[in-house]
Design a protein that fits this description.
With 466 residues, the protein is an alpha/beta fold. It has 16 helices and 16 strands. It has three domains: 87 residues, Winged helix-like DNA-binding domain superfamily/Winged helix DNA-binding domain (Arc Repressor Mutant, subunit A, Orthogonal Bundle); 105 residues, Alpha-Beta Complex (Aspartate Aminotransferase, domain 1); 241 residues, Aspartate Aminotransferase, domain 2. Strand 7 and strand 8 form a beta hairpin. The longest helix has 24 residues. In the C-terminal section; belongs to the class-I pyridoxal-phosphate-dependent aminotransferase family.
Length: 466
Amino acid sequence: MSQLKTIQDEDLPSWLPRLAAHKGPRFLQIADALQAAVADGFLRPGDRLPPQRQLAAQLEVDLTTVTRAYDEARRRNLLEGRGARGTYVAAPKVELTAVLDLSMNTPPPPDGVDFDDMLKQGLSQVLMRADNASLMTYHLGGGSDADRKAGARWLEPMFGQLDAGQLVVCPGAQAAIAALILALTAPGDVILAEPATYPGLRAAAAQFGRQVLAVEADRHGMLPEKLEEACRRHKPGLVYLNPTLQNPTAVTVPERRRKELAAIAQRCNVRIVEDDPYWLLADAPPPPIAALAPDQVLYISTLSKCLTPGLRVAFVLVRDPQERERFLAALRSFALMAAPLTAALATQWILDGSADGLLAGVCKEARLRHRMARDILAGRYSGAGDGLHVWLELPAYWHSAQLARAADNEGIAVTPAEAFATGGAFVNAIRISLGSIQDRGRLQAGLQRLSDLLARRPEPFSAAVV
């Protein structure tokens, strides 16, 4: 006779049914019984549970089984430990904020990718193969040789074979942009960008005393004739472009326009910083401008937007050796290096194929979410079907800042056009990010709530008096 069958009902806690050999792992049976007892009110917040050894004896199972059951119940937020006083039923966690965040551009969690396992396996391989002392010390050369080779491998879809020595490994694209501004411009210099552009550019330029001016754009990106006119008038230090799934407009500049912009930069002897975080997320994107005009363009590719923000790693292609040294010197002045452990993990994932698998999952999930946005937002959706965000032009009765405030009152966070404005003609729009809400059902609810809000006219303003 099984040990389980010898247990008497009166020996068991009132909330726990008898275990059965055919109902799966015993520790899960115990955890499930705990969860059911809490849901049914047999156990209430603050109730003290039996000590683990006592419960193990009552159930005639080993202590490890009960320990695993309590750990699983803690993972489900059912229990809390109070030191020597024992283990108690936890108070339910209250969701203090129900905000549905459509404001942060992050990659969506891909279906079918066990990220926890991927992280554990990757770190295990890093620690097994790397010199652990090197992971905990300074790296002054813009990344290790292995990291730069991994960067060259990551950029192969854009450029084919690259000299890894021309790459610099940075702690994210924002650090790269700031260092390029420091290295290649002087205080008071002008940087040219599109009328709506990445806010991090403006933030870095303002800190360093540079001025960002807008160059008119159309539905294909920056206008070549307007760029040439601005170059001759302002003698800019840099031109900043984000030509693939541009943030925030989601415009992808076609190849012909890219060639025209590069030719103007060459004629006017001005460098282009090509910030290209979304190229690998795009469906059949044109070649980077840096591939069309290699001597004119400094190219940034970050892993944060196509894999995960936790990998604070960006690869910067700087072909000119003197510019590369100036860039490294500028980078070291405020961000000495990418964290070696994080860079080593990125390198491991790139070289063992894990990064490609994660990228494919992110692309698939992003396209599914774009289809959801297209269905819910109907005629208002104007995205390309890929990437992380949608640029939504608003009906005339809504102003972007007003809509953002109204959305916030509805528990939805969106980003108004003002956050991206560098000047020029104002576009009445908001950016909707599709990756920051992990659960698809919650994303669907947020998009539907936003669609309903857009269909309503704004309520007249009234101030509360207290």
